[in-house]
Design goal:
Length: 145
């Protein structure tokens, strides 16, 4: 499904990851997709650390210096590996700088939605949301007909 969408290729003029949109990907195309998924998972999973460690907006609260250094070094390595390296053992093939940029932008946009999701989940699990649901349910049951 991921490889059948052509909006990015048509709009940003990047190479297609999948030549035949109606058939299964070839072995080489699967390696390229593997590198793209590796980079996206690497970025967003480490960015999730910033979201979970903060009580408020993660991009406002300053993380520790060592955490930032670890994030930057790890993401530099992951970006270089996915953009340049074709590694048979890992089953990845270089995706190039254009796809790397698109994946970074996609991951940053996804990161911006993680804080509102965190707030919603925290509110739902706090009990305050369920108290409102129960109060509304009880008040409608007790209301005279």
């Amino acid at each position: 499904m991921t490889m059948k969408i052509t909006v990015l290729q048509n709009h940003f003029h990047v190479r297609h990851l999948h030549g035949d949109l109606h058939g299964p990907p070839t072995h080489e195309e699967s390696k390229i997709l593997g590198a793209a998924i590796y980079l996206q998972v690497s970025i967003i999973s480490q960015a999730l650390i910033f979201v979970t460690r903060s009580r408020g907006w993660s991009y406002i609260e300053r993380p520790g210096v060592f955490l930032m250094i670890a994030f930057v070094i790890t993401q530099l390595i992951a970006t270089i590996v996915s953009a340049f390296l074709s590694w048979e053992l890992a089953g990845i093939k270089a995706i190039g700088w254009s796809w790397m940029g698109i994946i970074w932008v996609y991951s940053i946009i996804t990161y911006l939605f993680l804080d509102p999701i965190k707030f919603a989940v925290r509110y739902a699990l706090s009990g305050r949301a369920w108290n409102l649901v129960v109060a509304k349910h009880v008040s409608t049951k007790l209301a005279p007909s």
